[in-house]
Amino acid sequence: MWWVLWVLAALLALFCSFDVWYFLRAAVVILRAWFQPPIWDVTAEQTLTGRVTPNDIDMCHMNNARYLRECDFARFSLYMRNGVFKAVRALRASMVVGATTIRYRRALCIGEGYELRSRIVTWDDKAFFLEQRFVSAKDGLVCAVMYCKQSVIRSSPDKIMQHLCKRKVECPEFPEDLQHWVNFISASSQALRAESGLDEKNK
């Protein structure tokens, strides 16, 4: 009987200390992507389907933070299928989210189905830039669109693309709206560096 109490106590401590469901969901997503057909075109769009559940909502529509969470899982799946995760491991690199921006156009309501379409739009010398769209299954409306800057550490997007394609790959041009956002990130970084005195210290 005591071992049951110890197990329950351990589970309680685990769920109180970590977002267990996030890690379980991530493991399931990665495992599922492992058995799906690979995406040979690194910039090709991947589509995942979902449905708004009671766990996702506030005021009967999807909570704004849930969109970002679902985008995390979609990127995990995309990187598994297009080989980016494999290339990152081979190059002993890593990736982190450097910035995101999301625009909400119409609420996804409880029970509503949707498609989450993810693709790598372009890249620079430090990061990949992705677009992720939530498209309503009932009428095809883009309910939300997010841009993500996926920064590469200890390597570069060019090296990852060369590892995958075995040749030099020219990056696509930045769409106008994405370029505006990248300019904002750059301006924000410069302002914050000046505010903290980092520019003066580096002179």
TrEMBL record:
Provenance organism: Dicentrarchus labrax
Protein name, entry field: Protein THEM6
Sequence similarity: Belongs to the THEM6 family.
Domain of life: Eukaryota
